[in-house]
Each structure stands twice: as C-alpha cells, then as structure tokens.
Amino acid sequence: MGGFVAFPLIMGGFVALAFWGLERGYDPAAWGAGLTVLNFFVILGAEQLLPRNPDMNVFRDRQSLNDIGHGLLLATLARPVGGALSVATLGLLAGFRQQWGLGTLWPASASLPVQFALALVLWTFSDYWIHRSLHSFDRLWWFHAVHHDTPQMHILKSGRLHFGEEIFNAVLKPVPLLLLGAPPEVMVGVGLWIVFDGNLVHSNIDQRFPSWAHYFVPTVQLHNLHHAQDRRHQDSNYSGSTAVWDVVFGTFSHPDRNPLGPLGIENNPVPPGFVAQLAFPFRRERRAQGTAETT
Ligand SMILES: [Zn+2]
Ligand SMILES: [Zn+2]
C-alpha cells in the first residue's frame, strides 16, 4: 500500500505547493530554491523510512561525497554559466523571434496550469533529443557516463552530472521555450517539475505503479531500466518526465516486460576519484578503456 501512495503524495504535493506559491505571486527564485531544498530532505527521509532496495543508501555509498561535489558544481557553476549562455543565445535569437513573429505565439493570457502543460510538452521534447544525443555521440557520452557509472540509485544521483554535461543541458534545453517567449514563472514551474521528478526517479523510495502508469508518469522503474548495464535498456527511456516521446520515437522499454539486470556501465571506465571524474571526458587514453563503442 505504502508504495502506491509515495509518488502521488510527494510529486502531487510539491507540484501543488509550487503552483500555490507562484499563483500567489511569491518570488519565483526564492520559492523555487526553498521548495528544492525541502524536496531533497523529504525524499532523503522517505528513502530511510520506505527503502526500495535495502542495499542502496546515501550513507553507505562510497560515491556519495563525489555525488555531492558534482551536485554543488552543477548548482554553483554549470547552471549559472549555462543559464547565462542560454540568455546570450536568446539575445541572438531575439532578432529571429521578431522576424518570424514567434515572440507573440506564447498564450500568455491562458491560465498558469495550461501554460505550464504546454511548456512541459515542449521541454520534454527537447529533453528527449538532448538526452538521446548524449547516448549517441561518443564525445557527449563520456560526459554523461559520469551519471551512468554508478550501481547505486538514491537521491544524490539526481545531481550526479558532469558539469560539462550540465552546461550543455542548461544552454540547449530551454531554447524552444525561450524562443516562443514563455514567461519566467512558467520557466520556474518547469524547472521545479524537473527537480521533483528527477529526484523521485533516482530515489530509493519504494514506489509502485499499475502497469499502465509507466506510459504516462515518470516512474522510478522506467529510469532504473535506463541506468541498466544492458545497452538495449540503457539506450531507452530517455525522458525522465514522460514516456510519451520514447513511445513516439521507438525507444520505450516497459519495466514489466524487461527484467532489471545490474545497474551501471559494463567494464566501467569512469575512475572513482572526484578530480579524475571531472577530467575523464577530456582524457583520451582513459576513455579508450572499457566500452569505447557507445553508439
Ligand atoms: Zn542517460
Ligand atoms: Zn539518471
């Protein structure tokens, strides 16, 4: 029973809180930061009370400190730099927006939930293709491998991204929304949704779903398959937010029909040290070991 309510309770509760604050006109940046911190601790606590796999735990994983290091770099360096570059890109795009009449396309007078739903459709589309490109091109995969190399799944893995990958993500993913002129509160709403579902799909909370739900909601089972060593599964379920694009573009693996094997990367070439992990995508001789063929 507990497992079936974990996702609706946590995801639904935080989405409701996000809307409540944004509708009331709270400062999006401060409200967003507060909810992000609260979400982290709620999920960390739920992992201890209702663990999915007793062998996985933040406090016993030797990579946890590295995860925190990657997460801090992401928050203090990659996202601000990526965001600034994205805004700079937007400056370049502003001319095109005017020229193509895109700036007036966004339905700014629609209610916040409607605007948000539209934003999510566009965001998950670009998220899908950017994530798929990280798996399809070797040079990008070496950055993304730092996220995939771990056999453990828990809340800290959500922020375990090489800062280079996160700059790539932060620059490109918002472009369709910025191009269409989505307002800041919608951008913040989407950003929070990504944090909430990213944390839940990596968490070690016992979350259960009826079989059909895997087609519609971001389930931990879908994302665990994506973290499987088996390449057929690793190169599937790219979208962490909805399975719709994976179904449309033929990369969907249903968790009930595909048993989950070991997680991580076979012959893992990613080094265990933090600094070595940062340097890894830039070092040709290390990358040549292990799984050189990733496409
Ligand atoms: Zn991936
Ligand atoms: Zn992941």
Radius of gyration: 19 Å
Low-confidence stretches: none
Strand content: under 5%
Helix content: 55-70%
Shape summary: globular
Mean pLDDT: 89
Which structural class fits the helix and strand makeup? mainly alpha
First-last Cα distance: 41 Å
Order of helices and strands: HHHHHHHHHHHHH
What does it look like?
With 295 residues, the chain is an all-alpha fold. It has one domain. Helix content is 60%, strand content 0%. It has 13 helices and no strands. The chain has helices at 2-23, 28-49, 64-100, 112-136, 138-148, 163-172, 175-180, 184-202, 220-226, 231-234, 244-248, 274-279, 284-287. α1 (2-23) runs antiparallel to α8 (184-202), α3 runs parallel beside α6 and α4 (112-136) crosses α5. The model has no long low-confidence stretch (mean pLDDT 89). It binds zinc ion (2 copies). One zinc ion (ZN) binds next to α4 and α5.
Observed structural traits:
295 residues; binds zinc ion
